[in-house]
Amino acid sequence: MCGRFTLTEDLAEFAKELGLNYDPRTHNPRYNICPTQSVAVVLNDGSNAITTARWGIESSWGGLLTNARAEGIETKKSFRNLLTKQRALILTDGFFEWQNRPGNKLKVPWYFRLKTRKVFAFAGIWENEGKAEPTVCIITTSPNEIVAPVHTRMPVVLARKFYETWLSMDGQPVEKLLACLVAYPAEEMESHVVSTIVNSAKNEGPECIKEVAA
């Protein structure tokens, strides 16, 4: 699963590459984004803009759905209509996963990002529940070779070639959408251990992603 991520880089370059409307005055570096908080997104609603949404879709039974498994998403009642109609890019420049280690009482947090250090996007789905902000959920998949030693799941990092399909407002074949939901190439990513200060949602700042001794 994906429980925390970052967005430290400004989005101006990303917005320019995709031709998106974006106000740089709205950007504040984020080093420890948690569920229920506002996140930067691009919705497939025709707005062609970077906007915000709250992380976590409310379920019919009252729980908060922050992640959705790619495997079988097209058959799940909570997600199948959102997959075909309401998709989103969830913008980020890195994410955290926690590793179990023998003899350690606390799990070890790792930080993952692209080697380019650029902004990228998770595959997401969104819902408008009549509130001030829409809500979003991150789709996860089986891990690639760099994440697998740390965790059994990873967020779907969308390849740039899939952005147009994912943001399309037109009907897309389910098979074409599912083909987007694959693990990102491990050779294009890097990772390092970070401090357990990231475990607390109260902690924000560059120290959350600073490399520490493994």
Compact description:
Helices cover 11% and strands 31% of the residues.
Q: Notable features of this structure?
A:
hypothetical protein yedk fold, mainly beta, 5-stranded antiparallel β-sheet, 5-stranded mixed β-barrel, 214 residues, 11% helix
Sketch the topology as an H/E string, one letter per element. Answer: EHEEEEEEHEEEEEEHHE
Q: Biggest sheet, open or closed, and with what strands and sense? A: 5 strands, antiparallel
**H/I helix tally:** 4
Q: Sum up the overall morphology in one term.
A: globular
Strands of the largest sheet, in order across it?
Answer: 2-1-9-10-14
Q: Which regions are unreliable across 5 or more consecutive residues at pLDDT < 50?
A: none
Kindly name the structural category.
mainly beta
Question: What is the CATH homology-level superfamily?
Answer: SOS response associated peptidase-like
**Average of per-residue pLDDT values:** 94
CATH topology: hypothetical protein yedk fold
Characterization of the model:
The structure is a single chain. This protein is mostly beta strands and 214 residues long. Helices cover 11% and strands 31% of the residues. The protein has one domain: hypothetical protein yedk fold, CATH 3.90.1680.10. It has four helices and 14 strands. The strands form three sheets. Strands 2-1-9-10-14 form a five-stranded antiparallel beta sheet, with no helix packed on it. Strands 3-4-12-11-8 form a five-stranded mixed barrel. It starts with a strand and ends in a 21-residue tail after the last strand.
